[in-house]
Amino acid sequence: MIDVTRAEVSIDGVGLLAPTSMSVGRGEIVALRGPNGAGKTTALRLIVGQTTPSAGTVTVSGRAPRPRDHDFRAQVAGMIGLPPFARDLTLLEQATLIGITWGLPTDAARSAAGEVLDELGMSRLVDRFPHELSSGQTQLAGLALTLVRPADIVVLDEPEQRLDDERLGRVISVLRRRADAGGTVVFATHSDRLVTDLGARTILLQEAA
Amino acid sequence: MIGGGGEALPVTRTPATILRDLRRTVREARRRPTADTSYAVYLSMLIVLVAVVPVVRAGWLFVTDPVNAVALTSAATMPVIAGVVGLVWAAAVIAGRLRGPVVFTPFLAHALTTSPVPQRRAFARQVWMSVAALSAAGALCGAVLAAAEAAAVTSATAAAAASPSTAALATTAASSAFMIAPGAALGVALSASVGAACGIVAALLWLVGQAVPSRWSALAIGVLAALSTVAFSAQAWGLTFDPALAGSTLAALAAVGAHPLAAPGALLAALTLLAVVPLLLSRLEPRVVLGQSLRWEAVRLHTSTLELSASVATYQTVPRAGRRRFAIGGRARSLPAIIVRRDAVAALRTPGRLAIGVLVLLACGALITGAAVVAPPAWMLGAIAGVAAYAAAGPLSDGLRHAVEAASALPLYGTSDSALLLLHTLFPALAVGLVVATGAVLVTAFWPPAAALPLASIGSAVIVAIGSVVLRLMNALKPPLPLALLTPIPTPAGDMAALNRVIWALDGVLLAGLLGAAASLSATAILAPLAVVAVAGLIARRRWVVR
């Protein structure tokens, strides 16, 4: 499903990602690990098409990632940093609108949005605007907006950021269910618990020379 | 005082030494190399010589022109001046809620709000600096208006002596000259004093806006705005100035209302507010000072990189109301209808901001349509209306900005970026167009001089409305400052690259002014404003393609 073959990224002679290869199959959970600066986020950017490799190749379902291509957009959901929140919509409204744009009827989109927010322990926060959330709640809200949309592949950069143990447990449950339903999950992390509880295959990245 | 080892330390530092040391630390941290300082001085002198001096000269010539001077200092103008002063005072309170006079660098704000120095002492310097600056500005306004009046009297008297046909002008000028004989220095000094008092009141109301709870400052804003409205409509209420009692033309400056005791009133208000400054400073919440200082630092940084939209967004009102009205769905079924409803409900969630935007748009519609039949140059009124319409379209264009942000992030929505962007232009285009057209229709229906204007004059107002939304789109798509604009352009007058950067930063405002001016060239101007809209559209398209 995801094939990375000796892909590397460098800008003006500065290496951001050493030559890296990996292959991720359907329904697999893969964790990218390594020290700060090893290129974990850069590798994720390659998969979602935000960066192109300086050398080597990256394909998703046999094609180069193209974020403006409708089929690719439908296939890959990702959160690298926080997503763009609409400052004038509540969480439930934002999540509902995302569902509608993917073809769900309004009522079904609202139900689906409510379910995802509930799974992440945010039922009491559905009527809040983004600026009314704490940093941990904002992280959860970003994950909710990313996970409410349909996708075969979910790409996340350090989803554990700013979360307490209880909230991290909820995120693990949601990602586990996603994989059980046939979805592919690729994430970068520094959390041992996330890797262990999800039973993720680990790919260790080395710092670029 | 307890030291780090737990032992008591002798307290030897007074508030004065603490303040002095803190300020010295900040000064040294911000000290720039001599070359930088020299360049800043050179740049400032250049700006003063090239930009400020011509504007000041043009303003002086305008004010001292006999016809303008008579108009500015006539009894009929006084309530207007008084109303403007009232609005300035109300604006000072509003400004204090966002960015009061007591603002520091974040470090100094933190250090001062957590230091043992009493607030009334730690914050005093900022207040006295603002008082000095605004009283000087007020005094300047007062002196200029008094000098204008003197010029009017001199000119009109001379003209009357030369030609009996200008006797009417002389009579008008003389009637406006309550007190100031030609060249009377005392009159200028008195007028400057009243202006200074007004400036002091403005500076202290600025502090009031920062120091008192928001409900009290809202009350103060309401009272000042109401008094200002009374002043504006003084003639309609049958109120008149009594020149003999007023004592000075600039008594009007001090008046929030058309009252002969205006000058003493302004002085009394200034003295009263000065007396409560220590109390206001003591009550000033440290979190307010810290928050405003942090926001101001963010604005300073954004402005230094010419990201003016980000600077404005720093002070944008956040929604707190209307969350119970679900913005998504309702009776809307199709995606365009859902997005239009979403944008409309979202706009209602900052009602104050929306109300101001709608009122300004109504005024813009009236101004653009009515500009063709008023005395001042129509293009000037049109340009002002165009810029105001561009600014007022902001509260109705939040969805547009969100669509642009979404387009540059990982995909969340199932529609394509371009489709989402187009869907989010529907509401602002409809709303801005409708409100501006309403303003245009109202002015032709209820203002007799505009009754005979052709239908096309309303059309040009609508073009300005749609153009404002296109300009909003263009602005939302603006990328970071292109590196090419940092390339120096040496000329005998200095580095002109700065001019390019300013044009780049203000392109939306400049095109908005051009759009309004083009629409007001004549009552049936259609092609010229359409051309400006087309240019804005092409720039927006270019930015979209290379995003």
How does the SSE layout of this entry go?
The complex is a heterodimer of chains A (about 210) and B (about 550).
Chain A: E1 2-11, E2 14-24, E3 29-33, H1 40-48, E4 55-60, H2 70-75, E5 76-79, H3 91-101, H4 106-119, H5 135-148, E6 153-157, H6 165-180, E7 184-188, H7 192-198, E8 201-204
Parallel strand pairs in A: 3-7, 3-8, 5-6, 6-7
Antiparallel strand pairs in A: 1-2, 1-4
Chain B: H1 15-29, H2 34-64, H3 66-73, H4 78-98, H5 106-113, H6 119-122, H7 124-162, H8 167-176, H9 185-211, H10 214-232, H11 243-246, H12 251-254, H13 262-275, H14 277-283, H15 286-304, H16 308-314, H17 335-347, H18 351-370, H19 378-392, H20 398-407, H21 417-446, H22 456-476, E1 490-491, E2 494-495, H23 497-505, H24 507-519, H25 527-545
Antiparallel strand pairs in B: 1-2
Helix pairs in contact in B: 1-5, 3-7, 3-8, 4-9, 4-10, 5-15, 7-8, 7-9, 9-13, 9-14, 15-16, 17-21, 18-19, 18-21, 18-22, 19-22, 19-24, 20-21, 21-22, 22-24, 22-25, 24-25
How is this structure best summarized?
The complex is a heterodimer of chains A (209) and B (547). With 209 residues, chain A is an alpha/beta fold.
Number of strands of chain B: 2
Main sheet specs of chain B: 2 strands, antiparallel
Which percent band covers the strand fraction of chain B? under 5%
Biggest interface reads: A-B, 39 and 33 residues
Gyration radius over CA of chain B:
27 Å
The arrangement of helices and strands of chain A along the chain is EEEHEHEHHHEHEHE
The total of helices of chain B stands at: 25
What structural class do helix, strand and pairing data of chain B support? mainly alpha
State the strand order across the main sheet of chain A: 5-6-7-3-8
Going across the major beta sheet of chain B, what is the strand order? 1-2
Calculate the mean pLDDT score of chain A and round it: 94
Largest sheet of chain A: 5 strands, parallel
Q: What is the radius of gyration of chain A? A: 17 Å
